[in-house]
Amino acid sequence: MEKQKVTSTVAAASGGGMFTIGLVTAWYSSNIGVLLLNKYLLSNYGFRYPIFLTMCHMTACSLLSYVAIAWMKVVPMQTVKSGVQLRNITVLSFVFCGSVVSGNVSLRYLPVSFNQAIGATTPFFTAVFAYAMTVKREAWIVYLTLAPVVMGVIIASGGEPSFHLFGFIMCICATAGRAFKSVLQGILLSSEGEKLNSMNLLLYMAPIAVLLLLPVTLYMERNVIGITLALAREDIRIIWYLLFNSVLAYFVNLTNFLVTKHTSALTLQVLGNAKGAVAVVVSILIFKNPVSVTGMLGYTLTVLGVILYSEAKKRNI
Q1: 155 CA to centre of own chain
Q2: Which of 224, 257, 258, 216 is closest to 242 using CA atoms?
């Protein structure tokens, strides 16, 4: 009897481990997939409409979030309880939109490898915004570990054969925007009555993002729908690319939430660092963009800095 119990416990642990591995694989695949497909559409394919592409992503997130929460009950639905909470969600949506659009614009001009190197500096911007906007201060050793993060990007920038100033600025804006949103979210939705899990937050943010992006798309990317339909008449694959890309954008958020739920935020951070390295290697193999030894050394230094930063924060909690 005791032997059967041990066997069933081992089987359950093995099954749980396989489920977690499957989740991490799905998270990696969707995350790297949407990044590479964005790059292909905006740069290689020639679909130069990053704002419209972002609006497609947000539309898919709106619809699929509702299906996942209201119909499939992936998580319990949380309601918006006040006008103040709705205003705070709208502010977060605005920052979120700016970050995603900037990231997509940067992919028109920068290779994915360099884009990921800059994106790895998110902890630096998070620490800066947290220091400026809250009374929370980290230990000096935590701030010291941010030095290699910044130095790595400076070295990578100097050694990047495909460096483009505007693309670099847009990528910095996207990275800073992600960090600003995370800090702002902690401030605006900090009370127990206003906290939302990431899936419910996306449910409310995505439709607001669509409403914010629609007039901007119509003004800055005029006749984009007509152009897209004209492209579809020549090559129907563009419709399938956009649909698949938009669904992947939602699955990035879903798998991110599920991996965090079934592991921990710290594990997610470690996996995220590894994901960046995997994305760099895969993008170089697919797009064959030139990479210098200096650039790779800079990126390695940045990732090392992020790992040290994570370790320092863990030890000083």
Answers
A1: 24
A2: 224
Indicate yes or no: pTM above 0.85.
Answer: yes
CB 29 within 8 A of CB 225: no
Q: How does pLDDT run across 55-98, given as a tens digit for each residue?
A: 999 999 999 999 999 999 999 999 998 899 999 999 999 999 99
Nearest to 97 by CA among 222, 215, 193: 215
**Environment class of 83 (CB within 10 Å of its CB; exposed 0-12, middle 13-18, buried 19+):** exposed
Name which of 245, 210, 199, 203 is nearest 58 in CA terms: 210
pLDDT tens-digit series, residues 145-167:
889 988 999 998 888 898 999 99
Is the separation of the CB atoms in 183 and 21 below 8 Å? no
| CB-count burial class (<10 Å; 0-12, 13-18, 19+) for 39 | buried
- Structure tokens belonging to residue 94: 């605005």
CA–CA gap between residue 168 and residue 198 (Å, rounded) = 29
